Each structure stands twice: as C-alpha cells, then as structure tokens.
Amino acid sequence: MWYYNIAMLINNDTIIKDDNPLIRRKSEDVVLPLKDEDRDLLMQMLKYVDDSTVPEIAEKENLRPAVGISAIQIGVPKKMTAIIIKDDEGNKLCEYALVNPKIISNSVEKACLSSGEGCLSVVEEHEGLVYRSLRVKVKAYDALKDENIIIKAEGYLAIVLQHELDHFKGILFYDRINKENPYFQLPDSTLID
Ligand code: CO
Q1: What is the pLDDT of residue 7?
Q2: What is the per-residue burial (b if ≥16 Cβ within 10 Å, else e) of 98-115?
Q3: 72-113: per-residue pLDDT in tens?
Q4: How far apart are CA 96 and CA 75, in angstroms?
Q5: Global pTM value
Q6: Distance 18 CA to ligand 1 centre (A)
Q7: What are the catalytic residues?
Q8: Which of 65, 77, 118, 128 is the most exposed place for a label (fewest CB within 10 A)?
C-alpha cells in the first residue's frame, strides 16, 4: 500500500493531527477475511494503546496516553479501531481490535464525560461537553477473537466507541461541543466521571 508500510512506527510524531486534511477523510470498509497487512496494522494500533498507558514505555517511545486509536489517525482510511480500557492499577477492563464496527442501536438517553474528551489527533485544548448516547450496541469483527461480535456498551465504553467510530466519518470530538455554551447541561443526561 502506498500510504503506510508495516514497519511504520506509531508515536506522537507520526499520528496525524487535525491540521492535516486527511483526518477528515471518510474511512472505508475493510475486506474480510482480514489481510495480513490489515491485521498487522491493527495489532500495532492495539500495542500503541496498551503501551501508551505505561509511563516508562510512553516516555521512552514518545506515546501520548490513549484508550483508543483509529486507523485514519495513522493515515489509513480503513474502518479499524483499537480500544483498551484499564483500571487505576493498569489491569485491562476490556480490549478490542475492531474491524468494520458499526452502531446497530443506541439509546435516546445521552451522556458525556464530565471532564470533556481528548484525542491523539487534537493538540489544542477544546473545553466543553460532548454529548453522546449513554448506551450503544456495536457489531464488528473482532481481530483478537477472530469472530463477529456484538458489544453492548454503557457509559465510558459507549462514549469511547462513539468517539472512535466518529473518526471513520472524519468527525472530531470538538465538532460536537456547543459553540455558544460549551458546558450546556442537557436535561436528563448522565455525567460520567
Ligand atoms: Co480521537
């Protein structure tokens, strides 16, 4: 492929930022069965996310802490995303290497992270609340299990999934912040700490 090679290093310097028009590009479905080059890339993305929350590795390899990364953030417009959520002790609460994830249903009830969102592709601070569905159901091919899965997510994981899937459409979290009133409190919504 012209746009990346398998030995590519994913770090804070090589991750595409929002000053690069590529970050707005729409991602395409990945052909299944998964090709080796796609699997390799997805596993490297997963490794980035895993290593990024280990301070010694993150410092040495120039990684910014993250819970998720999508392929377009390394310049590859394919629907692939890697997510790892850990507890305060660094134990994995969930881990996904998703291919062609798609939201198949979502709650009307909204939620947002009380401290707002961040993104590996966004350097500047963008303060404000990002409202999303409190619950989503996502179907995907999971490259870790090598099978089709359905994730029923609520709260933090649901927010992370929606953030990552927005990348497939070229949408960044701050596009969803209320410009006039960034801390607008949506009635009947859930604040997640
Ligand atoms: Co992001």
Answers
A1: 55
A2: bbbbebeebeeebbbbee
A3: 999 999 999 999 999 999 999 999 999 999 999 999 999 999
A4: 20
A5: 0.95
A6: 10
A7: 164
A8: 65
